[in-house]
Amino acid sequence: PRLLGDALDRTLAETMAGVARRTSAGRVADYIPELAGADPDAFGVTLASVLGRTYGAGDASTEFTIQSVSKPFVYAFACDELGADVVHRHVGVEPSGEPFNAISLDGRGRPENPFINAGAIVTTSLVPAPDAGERFARIRDALSRFAGRELDVDEDVHRSEATTGHRNRALAGLALAAGTLGTDDVDAATDPYFRQCSLRVTTRDLALMAATLANHGVHPLTRERVVGERTARDTLSVMATCGMYDRSGAWAFRVGLPAKSGVGGGIVAVRPGDFGIGVFAPPLDEAGNSVRGVAMLEDLSATFGLHMFDHA
Ligand code: GLN
Q1: pTM for the full model?
Q2: Cα 151 from Cα 143, distance rounded (Å)
Q3: Could you identify the atom of ligand 1 that is nearest to the CA of residue 264?
Q4: pLDDT band at 7, cuts 50/70/90?
Q5: Is residue 28 a known part of a binding site?
Q6: Could you write out the DSSP letters of every residue in 148-160?
Q7: Which ligand 1 atom sits closest to the C-alpha of 69?
Q8: Burial (CB count within 10 angstroms: exposed 0-12, middle 13-18, buried 19+), residue 269
Q9: Into which family does the record put it (predicted)?
Q10: Is 301 annotated as a binding residue?
Q11: Phi (first) and psi of residue 52, to 5 degrees
Q12: 24 CA to centre of ligand 1 in angstroms
């Protein structure tokens, strides 16, 4: 069967209904009260084609915080600004096989990849700016261009992230000691990082952000070139190998699409050249990936042969 077509909204709704019947496992993130209060039954999906058509079902327009789904987009922005060579003096491209908050530095003092917290904080610290406020302003602007609309910070989530983020500050401190942090001030790295995690998005935003990568860096609706073609390719490469933390191998095997998850319950997945998908369902597995989000993408991949190594 072909995935794109007029019946796609219905197909998405039916796939969601099947997943909802089958799975209710997982636990909503509870390290801050704002996430602990998320509705465990919320479930939404949007697919955005590179031609700019969007298809959605369920809670497709519910806002939630982007969390770690921000990481590939900030990585893309940093690579575009500085060149990938410069970025990779500070952070590697190896799947760590470790949890998202692991203490991770390779033999050169670099976090293993830009999608675990240590590597994401380093990546954020590299964005050129005179101070933390300006750094976040530039990041917010870049992520808004990926989404095609202005994104805002959930101030309550940000406050909680900042007051509880001791481990993230410690990770930044280790990178600073190892000489790989982009600034000599830990807060100038972690403050913009906490804010970027607290940006509010919907599955439609995520689908369009993913579709911009699928479309080689050009937003399908605004037609703006957000990042270069090579940057889009580099970002998808890291998403294909490191996007789902210590489940990245199982994900590559079963779903076979570049992707990134976040503890807010969001996941983006990209079918290069074709479309982006955003899914949202708050309960998480032990790795911090949305249980229903993973199941949804597994089903779509299996039903429509979306795995990158499927025969077209
Ligand atoms: N704000 C979270 C943290 O830094 C994001 C982690 C995630 O989404 N996996 O711990």
Answers
A1: 0.97
A2: 7
A3: 8
A4: confident
A5: no
A6: TS---B-HHHHHH
A7: 8
A8: buried
A9: Belongs to the glutaminase family.
A10: no
A11: 95, 5
A12: 22
Closest protein CA for atom 4 of ligand 1: 117
- Nearest CA owner, ligand 1 atom 2: 67
79: domain CATH number is 3.40.710.10
Separation of alpha carbons 207 and 61, rounded Å: 11
User: How many angstroms separate the CA atoms of 2 and 155, rounded?
Assistant: 42
Place of tokens 């972690």: 190
Q: Do residues 146 and 71 lie in contact, with contact meaning Cβ atoms separated by under 8 Å? A: no
Distance CA 277, CA 47 (A): 4
pLDDT, residue 312, reads: 64
88 found inside a domain: yes
Ligand 1 nearest atom to the CA of residue 31, by list position: 10
Give the pairing type, strands 259-261 and 266-271. antiparallel
Structural domains in the chain (count):
2
- pLDDT bucket at 311, cuts 50 / 70 / 90: confident
Q: Is the Cβ atom of 69 under 6 angstroms away from ligand 1? A: no
Q: How far is the CA of 260 from the centre of ligand 1 (A)?
A: 12
pLDDT at 1: 54
For ligand 1, atom 6: residue with the closest CA: 68
282 lines ligand 1 (CB under 6 A): no
Residue positions annotated with a catalytic role: 68, 71, 193, 245, 263
Q: Is residue 114 part of a domain?
A: yes
Please provide residue 26's backbone torsions phi and psi, each rounded to the nearest 5 degrees: 105, 165
